[in-house]
Amino acid sequence: MLLSLVEAPRRSYDSDLRWQDPLVMEPVDGHEGVFSIVIDVPPGYVQYKFIVDDEWRHDDDQQLMPDPLGHLNNWKFVKEDLSEEVLLPLPVPPASHQQLMEIDSRNNSPAMPGMGHIPAHQPDLKSSRMQIADFLAKHTAYELLPESSKVVALDVTLPVKQAFHALHDQGIPAAPLWDSARQQFVGMLSASDFITILRQLGSNGASLSEEELETHTIAAWKEEKALQSSEIGARRPLIYAGPDDSLRTVADKLLQHGVATLPVLSISAEDGNIPRLLHLASLSGVLKCLTRNFYNFNIPIFTWQIGALPIGTWAGPGKGGRRPLSVLKANASLSSALTLLLEAGVSSLPVVDDNGALVDVYARSDITALAKDRAYTRLQLDDITVSQALMYRQDASGVAGTAGVRCHYCLCVDTLRQVMERLAQPGVRRLICIEAGSKRVEGIISLRDIFSFLLS
């Protein structure tokens, strides 16, 4: 790497040397007042700074980035093939949850949310996607199985009410359905089903009364749901994966069928072809497997800023192929919130104040909190507000329903790698992109958004 400066120092510091020993810069022959130095550094981002008259300084004419303390450093991106000129988006140091909450309105990055364009160097994009696809193709669903865990399945003869109580008590958003008569897994029961039932209970044409929830079985309700939607005779088979299926196959099935989880089933002649439930696979598990192996990758797009990529749902008119963002006000009715969740086809919506600042998040899975003490039998969805529904969630979980517990954040200047690492953390299904300082919601990035981009 070549560093040069005009009318400058005789010393410079390099981040690869951990800012310890200064490197002496030499005059360039034939160029008065110009100093330079050649440094041998590994490929990747390198930060550096100069010392002028015993003071730390950066060069305003070269590329700049802030460090975690707010100081500006110069930076370069070094590639193995030095013949290829490269200019990638500015890297941003990782920010903790607390740092994100305390960040001020200082933001010197050129990336803006909603730009939705892919940076230059399409070969980097293509090679990055090929590396990821190759990794997913070489690893199997068996690697998603934890060393020790429990998997919950529900029998189709279980009353609907007990089924949703079970989802709430186990703290899970969905469960596979087991048909004992057929000795097969026949579907999934999810929070979306509970939303549908509650909306029906509040309408004149409800197919189930509150009393019927006590005795009506899952199988009977699924049958009625199929009849209402003209699915009978063309019912979708259970979407599942085998332990030997590749992670690419798992990810593709989750994306193509629009499901959040799918069962991993082992079916063998030794077991009489009776499926054994091993795990519930999700994009979160696939991403966790991917991030565990980041150190094996040299993937350029991981350093690109999330705000400059066509990933996620963003406030304002959709740009660059992105979807516009829907948000909720805390005083909106729960009925309107559930309708918006279903119509928008999303798993959650940010809850904002009058200034558009993030207050909380309401997700489809939160609806199961109303199963506690049969709260749904005493409430009208049009009368209860989102804020009140969030309090039911707090009472049900025993955890304060604050943004500090529930919400996970990012900034539009965070790199793709930083976003992926946060999404791979347990319990994180989405990141809310906020504006530094005001906490105004700018967008939301889900696991599905990440994989749709990586595998497109």
TrEMBL record:
Highest taxon listed in the record's lineage: Eukaryota
MF terms (GO), sorted A to Z: enzyme activator activity; kinase binding; maltose binding; protein kinase regulator activity
Record key words, sorted: CBS domain, Repeat
Signal sequence range: none
One Pfam family named in its UniProt record: CBS
The family this protein is said to belong to: Belongs to the 5'-AMP-activated protein kinase gamma subunit family.
PANTHER family in UniProt: AMP-ACTIVATED PROTEIN KINASE, GAMMA REGULATORY SUBUNIT, LD22662P
Protein name: CBS domain-containing protein
